[in-house]
Write a structure and sequence with these properties.
By secondary structure, this protein is α/β, with parallel strands linked by helices. It has 16 helices and 23 strands. The protein has helices at residues 43-62, 65-81, 83-94, 98-115, 118-121, 157-168, 182-195, 209-217, 230-242, 265-277, 296-309, 330-345, 379-382, 398-406, 421-430, 466-472; strands spanning 5-6, 9-11, 14-16, 23-28, 33-39, 126-131, 134-142, 145-149, 172-176, 202-204, 221-227, 246-250, 256-259, 289-293, 349-352, 369-372, 389-395, 410-411, 413-417, 435-438, 454-455, 458-459, 474-482. The protein has a seven-stranded mixed beta sheet, with helices on both faces. α9 links the parallel β11 and β12 (246-250). The longest helix has 20 residues, at 43-62. The chain is globular and about 85 Å long. The structure holds nicotinamide-adenine-dinucleotide. The site of nicotinamide-adenine-dinucleotide has 28 residues, from α8.
Length: 495
């Protein structure tokens, strides 16, 4: 057993080990061991970070966008050079497979690549002669100190949704990663430091509620990006905006995949299995509910149940790699197992039961589970499970399948598998979800497009990623200009 390391914070270019503060354990979920301790920052630590970020802002803002982009180009190269090391760190503290960690880090790097284009992204508009002799132009300016608060499930990608763009736009930043997975965020922060961010431009604090409350309360914080569960997202949005801050807050989800009777069987089954059980279902874009229409049930259900059973589950911190790793904590694993039981009690039929799985490494494992005959009013249908559980709902036709989806309060992703262009078009037009897939299992948008959650999956106006991300981290200024000929219109003119 290794002695758990105390995770440092990073403030004003200095790595500080905080002694005499409360800590929270970081596990390797594959073996259940504590591998690190996260310090729980107090309001005083937060104040120090925000004040330093505020002090660094004027100089960073004056740094030309092309020079800020050069820091990000170096950052991108360092991320590539250290790719496998980051991947291993990510897998060790989160538990997802190495393959899944590679996806996590790669999606994050794509955000850096996007942010490298900042000189073009910041371009404004101009109209000559909005009135005779008068010109008008827009420019985008940074907000000041921006904050990122992130969840446990994508330790690399989600923080990278936020600060590359925020920094590229000229803001300074304070990141508070999930206390369950601080190590990947810190490894990446070291690379950003090496890439040449001046002191105070990028800072990392750690903690839980107290730390977040202090960030929300600080008058020098201009904007907050949050990703996590819906109750916290809603609270952060309401509290932050009431205090005059700009907030974008991504929340929980329930995502649906419709399988029509004419769908290609093999790709639909693969799409659903990968979508439901990838990252052990701990994804806000997990396709956790299959809505099987009419005769599609007999084509796909037996293979779906068998596919789930064949998923090899085991520790991810060694070779050979399994198909699926553990859940993040013992408590979370137990909660998901309990929800399966509740589903069965409420009348769902268990086609594949992952609870019997035995893995002897000491980790937090649960096998892939498929629940059939799930109804709208069951707890498993209403609550985000965030584990390796696929709900199957039955529908008579496309109409009632769309109705089921649109009854959900969430609105992240929804997909359809069909050969019919008409059905796909109807689905795309009417479904209430921000990210839509057609013959795609997980329709998560990539760096160049906004991550457009709807309903209780998002609170705010401007989403993360793409041009909306740039808009979120900047404010516009419109300048209207008129110039006079020498002497013309002057109150001192003697002519
Ligand atoms: P969480 O809400 O428990 O924690 C998210 C962050 O908020 C963490 O940094 C945590 O320290 C902080 N936090 C937790 N409770 C708090 C409180 N009471 N007050 C203030 N801060 C608090 O979420 P999680 O369990 O880490 O992550 C899983 C959730 O995130 C799921 O619901 C998932 O759907 C969601 N998620 C959403 C997206 C998206 O883009 N919509 C992406 C990834 C994850």
């Amino acid at each position: 057993m290794t002695t758990p390391q105390l995770c440092p914070i990073f403030v004003n270019g200095e790595w500080q080990e905080l002694r005499n503060v409360e800590t929270s354990p970081v596990h390797n979920p594959s073996i259940g061991e504590v591998i690190a301790l996260t310090p729980m920052c107090t309001a005083a630590h937060v104040n120090d970070a925000v004040e330093n970020a505020a002090a660094a802002f004027p100089e960073w803002w004056e740094t030309p966008p092309v020079e800020r982009a050069r820091v990000l180009f170096r950052f991108k190269m360092l991320l590539e050079d250290n790719f496998e090391e980051i991947v291993r760190c990510n897998t060790r503290e989160h538990g997802k497979t190495l393959l899944e960690s590679r996806g996590d880090v790669r999606r994050g790097i794509e955000m850096v690549e996007f942010a490298c284009g900042v000189p073009s992204l910041l371009g404004g508009e101009a109209i000559e002669n909005v009135a005779r002799g008068i010109d008008c132009e827009t420019i985008r300016q940074p907000l000041g100190v921006c904050v990122g608060i992130t969840p446990f499930n994508f330790p690399a990608m989600v923080p990278l949704w936020m600060y590359p763009v925020a920094l590229a736009c000229g803001n300074t930043f304070v990141l508070k990663p999930s206390e369950k997975v601080p190590l990947t965020a810190m490894m990446i922060a070291r690379l950003l430091e090496q890439a040449g961010t001046p002191r105070g431009v990028f800072n990392v604090v750690h903690g839980g509620r107290e730390c977040v409350e202090a960030l929300l309360a600080h008058p020098k914080v201009s904007a907050i990006s949050f990703v996590g569960s819906t109750p916290v997202a809603r609270y952060i949005f309401e509290t932050g905006t009431r205090r005059g801050k700009r907030v974008q807050a991504n929340g929980s989800a329930k995502n649906f995949v419709i399988i029509m009777p004419d769908a290609d069987v093999e790709p639909s089954i693969r799409g659903v299995i990968e979508g439901a059980f990838g990252c052990a279902g701990e994804r806000c874009m997990a396709s956790s509910t299959a809505v099987v229409v009419g005769s599609a049930a007999k084509n796909v259900l037996p293979s779906m149940a068998a596919g789930a059973k064949n998923i090899r589950v085991g520790p991810t911190d060694r070779e050979p790699q399994p198909d699926m790793g553990p859940l993040i904590t013992r408590q979370h694993r137990d909660r998901v197992a309990q929800l399966i039981e509740t589903g069965a009690t409420e009348g769902a039929r268990i086609l594949t039961d992952g609870r019997a799985l035995q893995v002897n490494s000491g980790g937090f494992f649960l096998g892939a589970t498929v629940l059939d005959q799930v109804q709208n009013d069951m707890r498993v249908a209403r609550e985000e499970i965030f584990g390796p559980v696929l709900n199957v709902m039955r529908a008579n036709d496309l109409e009632s399948a769309i109705e089921t989806i649109n009854g959900s309060p969430y609105g992240n992703g929804a997909s359809i598998f069909t050969r019919s262009g008409k059905a796909a078009r109807e689905f795309k037009h009417r479904v209430k979800a921000g990210m839509v897939g057609i013959n795609i299992g997980v329709p998560a948008s990539m760096a160049w497009f906004p991550f457009t959650g709807w309903g209780d999956s998002f609170f705010g106006e401007l989403h993360m990623q793409g041009k909306e991300g740039v808009q979120f981290f900047t404010q516009q200024k419109v300048t209207t200009t008129r110039w006079f000929a020498e002497g013309e219109g002057s109150v001192w003119s003697t002519k």
